[in-house]
Design brief:
The structure is a single chain. This protein is of the alpha/beta class and about 240 residues long. About 40% of the residues lie in helices and about 10% in strands. It has one domain: Creatininase (Rossmann fold), CATH 3.40.50. A five-stranded parallel β-sheet has the order 1-3-2-4-5, sandwiched between helices. α2 links the parallel β2 and β3. α2 crosses α7 and α6 crosses α7. It is globular and about 50 Å long. The structure holds zinc ion (ZN). The site of zinc ion (ZN) has 5 residues, from α2.
Length: about 240
């Protein structure tokens, strides 16, 4: 693996052209994650997955984007949200730069739900430019979470500052987990999950679900599952290039 930020330009070009030509870009967010998890939770998770994926593929690891489109959490002070078009433009520009350095495939490891749509649009725009990009939204996480979780989610598929995310940070950066936080199970209105809604009216602390049963061991197992599934997808794609 080559860390692009530590390499010289000639080293990056040589690594991409001499190897499999994969560049990995983690994209996260600066977003409230309750009273106990850091603002960079989604960035840390994306970085942890990207790091292991890049290592397994001997890829070039690009510096993480530490901001994302987190409009739904923007009612909580401390969250910094980018406009979706900013996320899309960032990913397109970074993809073009990576391709110019010799990347055959840009793997975007996305850690934030709000980035999904703009990153998918960026991948389509890059494809139209002849640059191949794939966006991975933590594949395998839902299934692993279903298997490992002891608490019920606050809403189907919702993971925010609860058991799953707290387990992930306990596995990745335990010193950044500041104590525990109380469970919050809001009464969501009809249409939640399909209609765009900001989250702050539903949980004062910013927790959605129960962080109580979180453990580092669960976080490690969740990461393993996401890395395994990510690599399976990328290997399949590389075989078809
Ligand atoms: Zn998160």
């Amino acid at each position: 693996m080559l860390r692009a930020e530590d390499a010289t330009a000639p080293q990056l070009v040589a690594h991409l052209s001499g190897g499999r030509g994969v560049a990995v870009l983690p994209v996260g967010a600066l977003e409230q994650h309750g009273p106990h998890l850091p603002l960079a939770t989604d960035t840390l998770t994306a970085q942890a997955v990207a790091d292991r994926v890049a290592d397994a593929l001997d890829a070039a690891l690009l510096p993480a984007v530490g901001y994302g489109a987190t409009w739904n959490m923007s009612g909580y002070p401390g969250t910094v949200t980018l406009r979706p078009e900013t996320v899309e433009a960032l990913a397109v520009d970074i993809g073009r730069g990576a391709a110019a350095a010799g990347a055959r495939l840009l793997v975007v490891v996305n850690g934030d739900w709000g980035n999904r749509a703009p990153l998918a649009r960026a991948a389509a725009a890059l494809q139209a430019d002849g640059v191949r990009a794939v966006v991975l939204d933590h594949p395998g996480l839902d299934e692993a979470a279903e298997r490992l979780r002891e608490s019920r989610p606050a809403a189907p598929g919702l993971m925010h500052a609860e058991e799953i995310e707290t387990s992930l940070v306990l596995a990745i950066a335990p010193r950044l987990v500041q104590g525990g936080a109380a469970a919050v199970y809001p009464d969501f209105p009809p249409g939640f999950g399909s209609v765009p809604m900001r989250m702050h009216p539903f949980s004062e602390s910013g927790v959605f679900g129960d962080p109580g049963p979180a453990t580092a061991a669960k976080g490690a197992a969740l990461l393993d599952a996401v890395v395994t599934e990510s690599l399976r997808l990328i290997e399949g794609l590389l075989a078809s290039l």
